[in-house]
Amino acid sequence: MNRLIYPFLLFGITHIAIAQSKPADTIVVKIGNASKMVLTINDRRDLETMKYYNFQALISDLIKRLEEKDSLRTAKPADAYLQPLEKTESISTETRTAESAPTITTDITWSHRYRDNNRRSKRTYQSWNFDLGTNNYLQGGNFVDGSNSAYTVRPWGSWYVGLNSIQRTRLANKLFVEWGAGVSWYNFKFQNDNLRVFKTPDEVTFVEDSRGFNAVKSKLTATYINASLVPVLDFGGNRRKPSLVDGYNGASSLRVGAGVYAGYRIASYTKFVYDDGGDNRRDRDNDNYYLNNLRYGVRVQVGFDDVDFFFNYDLNDLFIANRGPQLNAFSFGVTF
Hints:
Layout: H1 5-18, E1 25-31, E2 35-41, H2 46-50, H3 55-67, E3 87-96, E4 104-112, E5 124-139, E6 142-143, E7 159-170, E8 175-189, E9 195-199, E10 204-208, E11 214-234, E12 254-276, E13 279-286, E14 294-304, E15 307-314, E16 328-335
Antiparallel strand pairs: 1-2, 1-3, 3-4, 5-6, 5-7, 5-16, 7-8, 8-11, 9-10, 11-12, 12-13, 12-14, 14-15, 15-16
């Protein structure tokens, strides 16, 4: 490490020789037991330039050159180390404002913004988020449970699942926009386990199975790929969207958001599970069942710490007009 001091001593001595008419400010940094780094400031306006120097990269390159017995030049031009920093370091120093002034030992905190080659300063963070909840639908703004409709669903077992890649971009101090894409599944588990869903040339029908088996489960599943855009007001101003993997970088905070989404159906099927003499059998049929290919709606979310609660409501009908019941699907649950 003794060799590391020579280029800095040369740098300091050169600047002292130039500044004959004005005493220089000198910073002496102790290194180990017997080494020092000397930094001489002849023009205080240069302090602003120093704030944007990546000294960590500079010193690393100097050490490398010293180990190669080349102490007179760095690995890069000086301009290569002018990068904004985001780091605060505290070092123990000895400071002198002139040659005749006494030496004062103090702690100087260097606060400078930087951007190194491995981690760039950015306003957008990405996270993988998992939606887990339940889904149902409304008919004419009302639940279908009270009307004793054949297609009434069970709240427990009608799971809504979504996996999304979300980008979180800061727009203002506490205002963010979360945008991204993912895949989701509607699972409508019918209250009547003996219910079958069939597609006729004209419409989708809901009828009971007439074979006399002991029915176990009947459901309709639809899979969509989706895109979403949700402005979020985060009262804590945290940059990073909470996720199962990396959580928050910052204090806990309340956040609320409301936005829109749109999706495209990529698969749908019905499953009927029944007991046939002690054996569980499954009838699975893949078809579109006159489901709308497109879905679009509004999303509201409220979060605290690393969990968000969400509510999605489809503004368009679940089925094609005049091909099935007029239903608007919705889902709600938690986001990890």
